[in-house]
Design goal:
Blueprint lengths: L1 H15 L4 H15 L5 H13 L4 H43 L4 H25 L15 H14 L5 H15 L1
Helix pairs in contact: 1-4, 2-4, 3-4, 6-7
Length: 179
């Protein structure tokens, strides 16, 4: 019975939760804390903090953690699958439509017109990350090593075509040695 409740709770969140993991937090809290009572508000806040520290989308991390807390490994698999299922099904539908109609003028034009928008969104996200918290030594009277690491990594990825994973590891090592 607990697995059906987990599946149903997270399926609803997966279907109606738009805007990413942080936008889903209120829905998750309502289902987990208020509706089912699987944890307290304090435990939920701690779990959200823990989910932010682990890699991956926050909503999926929360689903996995709560599923494990409530139903063990099987519960974590059920909750994770339920929150991901609606997005997977929608993505499969959209991809099937796009591949079926990839030569359609409207589809082609729409996809081509989305490229600058996506590039702009990525650029804005990069600008938002350029702050004193991300670049701890940024300024006129600083050594700007973090800025240099960022610039060298950018050049290495886009012009030298070096594997980004290797650059992330190298940047981490340089950052660790310098700071």
């Amino acid at each position: 019975m607990i697995y059906l409740q987990l599946f149903w709770a997270y399926l609803k969140i997966g279907i109606f939760g738009f805007g990413g993991g942080y936008a889903m937090l209120s829905m998750i809290q309502f289902e987990i804390v208020d509706h089912y009572g699987w944890m307290t508000t304090t435990e939920f806040a701690d779990m959200v903090a823990l989910s932010q520290m682990t890699p991956g989308p926050v909503s999926i991390n929360i689903a996995t953690y709560i599923g494990y807390t409530v139903g063990g490994i099987s519960g974590s698999l059920v909750a994770t699958a339920a929150i991901v299922l609606p997005s997977l099904l929608m993505l499969m539908f959209v991809l099937k439509f796009l591949f079926k109609n990839k030569e359609n003028y409207i589809v082609k034009t729409t996809l081509e017109s989305m490229k600058p928008v996506i590039a702009g969104l990525i650029f804005v996200a990069a600008l938002l990350m350029m702050n004193p918290n991300s670049f701890c030594d940024f300024g006129l009277h600083q050594n700007n090593i973090s800025v240099m690491i960022c610039a060298v990594t950018f050049v290495a990825v886009f012009w030298a075509k070096i594997n980004p994973i290797l650059l992330i590891l190298a940047s981490g090592i340089v950052g660790y040695l310098v700071y």
